Amino acid sequence: MSRAAIAKEVLVGQTRALKMPGALRCFEALARQANEEHWSYEEYLSEVLAAEIQSRNESAVRQRVREARFPELKTLDTFDFSATEGVSPPQIAELARGRFIESAENVLFVGPIGTGKTHLAISLGVEAARNRRRVLFMRAADLVRSLVEARDGRELSRLQRRLNGVELLIVDEFGFVPFDRAGGELLFNIVAERYERRSIMLTSNLAFSEWPRVLGGDDKLATALLDRLAHHATVITTKGKSYRMRKRAAQDASTSTTVKKETRPK
Ligand code: ADP
Ligand code: MG
Tens of pLDDT along the chain (266 residues)? Predict the structure, then answer.
């Protein structure tokens, strides 16, 4: 075995022992480049370490995205701003920077079904995860069910502690499933606990005036909840027709014209 081959074997072992997968992947190619371009030893070492740092950053982001439990991955680059009224690109770009999370402010997306509320919430959650924020996505009904189950299993404070560790809690589809009084109160406690401390992003197809209906007709609870949610919040009201339905309608229109063309007698 040549000296170079031995050094390589040793390096492979060392990068493994030090858990440096980025350095392991790159050190050989960088060594070739260093030879060709006559880098100094310091330059070479610094490039190897830079590769390791980048690899660690990427895996931290992947981990954050995994932990957020998004139901599917949506990103801002696939959002068509011309297809949803009420959403301004600069406003979304500002939210993507994540300052609202730093100042523990909330974001509320309100509007009819299919207008891209969940798409935007997931995309902004992904951006937050990319900025290394701890994010958790939950449908409102699932969140309340988890809270009720945790209370019944005497594990409520553990779940609350876990939720407190989440920097951006995304509560999707508030209003789809109504809660009983106890469920509404458990949700209220989460919102009250996070008030001015941690961010919530919530999507709802209901107008604010309809909130009491979801909370067992409890006007006081609805007002208290909305008060805390909306106090330091960006409210984005999406408008327009369902994106899916419009796409389907556009597809139907294009297939029916081709059918017509094909059946036209020659
Ligand atoms: P909502 O949560 O408001 O009911 P969704 O975000 O679930 O709506 O949107 C329904 C579907 O349509 C999703 O697949 C979403 O990606 C897509 N969609 C909605 N609005 C847009 C848009 N403006 N640009 C691109 N895709 C969109
Ligand atoms: Mg939705």
Answer: 899 899 999 999 999 999 999 999 999 999 999 999 999 999 999 999 999 999 999 999 999 999 999 999 999 999 999 999 999 999 999 999 999 999 999 999 999 999 999 999 999 999 999 999 999 999 999 999 999 999 999 999 999 999 999 999 999 999 999 999 999 999 999 999 999 999 999 999 999 999 999 998 899 999 999 999 999 999 999 998 888 777 777 777 776 654 444 444 44
Taking CA atoms only, the protein residue closest to ligand 1 atom 16 is 119
Q: What whole-number distance in Å separates Cα of residue 234 and Cα of residue 97?
A: 14
The 135-139 sheet, strands edge to edge:
135-139, 168-174, 199-204, 106-110, 233-237
Interval between CA 116 and ligand 1 midpoint (Å): 3
Please name the residue whose Cα sits nearest to atom 20 of ligand 1: 116
pTM, two decimals, is 0.87
